[in-house]
């Protein structure tokens, strides 16, 4: 089926794009015609996703690195630009979660959450915007926050929520700055998606001998009005909206795709 939004001739970079939500967004960008470069900390994941993207019929490459390091995203952007001659779209999808009691979580783990979820997005946004300004590109930047960024669910999610709330503020600040250069910055706020991250959450929440599926459904029932999980493709479609002509006048928005968890 032909893509509703045509991104032919655009070049996109996706951090955390080797699998899960980031991988789904990367693949849909490619199906819409964009050349897509993948950043991931696991080389096997990055290489596999890059191959899938090439199989769609567009250009792709990948870089392995940790988004905590400021230069990682810069290298990825520069590689994409060198290969295609342009850079139009940044998707900051690298993320991490640790679950623990509010007072018991170590400072080391709190810093790790903030480093990956917040500093990783800061590095992506700043490096992307610098390149877009340098090349006079009317670019698009999309961050991935979470329902956790709007409603702190308390233990054992409290510190993860803090890190994702910071991404909301980052998105708004970057959007205000980027507006003078015609660079749009928005965020996607996913609900509950049963990715590898949620499997880790279930490892923590499921009692010994308990039923993981039942625990997952209980969380859905408690948090999601529609009482069903969201899917990565739901987030990818919103990313396409932000990155295509439909998003020309949309910036600084943090949009929930969460089955009615947050209504505001």
**Average pLDDT metric:** 95
Order of helices and strands: EHEHEHEHEHEHHHE
Strand content: 5-15%
Give the distance, in angstroms, between the N- and C-terminal Cα atoms. Answer: 34 Å
Strand order of the largest sheet: 3-2-1-4-5-6-7
**Quaternary form:** single chain
Q: Helix count? A: 8
Write down how many β-strands occur, each being a DSSP E stretch of 2 or more residues: 7
Tertiary shape: globular
Structural class: alpha/beta
Please provide a written account of the structure.
With 264 residues, the protein is of the alpha/beta class. The chain has helices at 20-31, 43-56, 70-84, 107-134, 158-178, 196-205, 212-223, 232-243; strands at 11-15, 35-40, 60-64, 89-92, 140-144, 184-190, 254-257. A seven-stranded parallel β-sheet has the order 3-2-1-4-5-6-7, with helices on both faces. Helix 1 (20-31) packs parallel to helix 2 and helix 3 (70-84) runs parallel beside helix 4. The longest helix is centred in the middle third of the chain and has 28 residues, at 107-134.
